[in-house]
Amino acid sequence: QEQLVETGGGLVQAGGSLRLSCEASIPKFSWRTMSWYRQSIGKERELVATFQAGGGPVHYADSVKGRFTISRDDSKSAVYLDLKNLKPDDTGVYYCKAEGSAYYPTYWGQGTQVTVSA
């Protein structure tokens, strides 16, 4: 089954860290731009970080620059998001996205919950 599966979410205190993983079972993983999004209650889904195919570049939302790091391992068809110095505003469901093209579809994972307590 073609899918993205996120893991690694949880409950953490402000200032803590988490590592999110997204394992992909999709075609052409190494060709795809991979991204992490998040959605908080009452807010629209927002882009957190992107890692383009072929080694980059990477892009971060201003709100997470210097605290979050996106990485990918094409040999494992996986993308990661390291979250450091977490803040309560980082609370939300984090989604992994694999960009498609005119030749293959876009995929979304089911999401993993991150909750940061004050």
Number of strands: 11
User: Structural class of the helix and strand makeup?
Assistant: mainly beta
Spell out the helices and strands N to C. EEEEEEEEEEE
Q: How big is the Rg?
A: 14 Å
Largest sheet: number of strands, sense, barrel closure: 7 strands, mixed
**C-alpha geometry:** globular
What's the tally of helices? 0
Helix content: under 10%
Average pLDDT confidence is: 96
Distance between the termini: 39 Å
- Outline the low-pLDDT stretches: none
**Residue share in β-strands:** over 45%
Structure description:
This protein is mainly beta and 118 residues long. It is built from no helices and eleven strands. The protein has strands spanning 3-7, 10-13, 18-25, 34-39, 46-51, 58-60, 68-73, 78-83, 92-98, 107-108, 112-117. The strands form two sheets. Strands 2, 4, 5, 6, 9, 10 and 11 form a seven-stranded mixed β-sheet that branches. Strands 1-3-8-7 form a four-stranded antiparallel β-sheet, with no helix packed on it. A hairpin with an 8-residue loop joins strand 9 and strand 10 (107-108).
Please summarize what this structure is.
By secondary structure, the protein is an all-beta fold.
Structural descriptors:
118 residues, single chain, seven-stranded mixed β-sheet, four-stranded antiparallel β-sheet, mainly beta
Q: What layout of secondary structure does this protein have?
A:
Layout: E1 3-7, E2 10-13, E3 18-25, E4 34-39, E5 46-51, E6 58-60, E7 68-73, E8 78-83, E9 92-98, E10 107-108, E11 112-117
Parallel strand pairs: 2-11
Antiparallel strand pairs: 1-3, 3-8, 4-5, 4-9, 5-6, 7-8, 9-10, 9-11
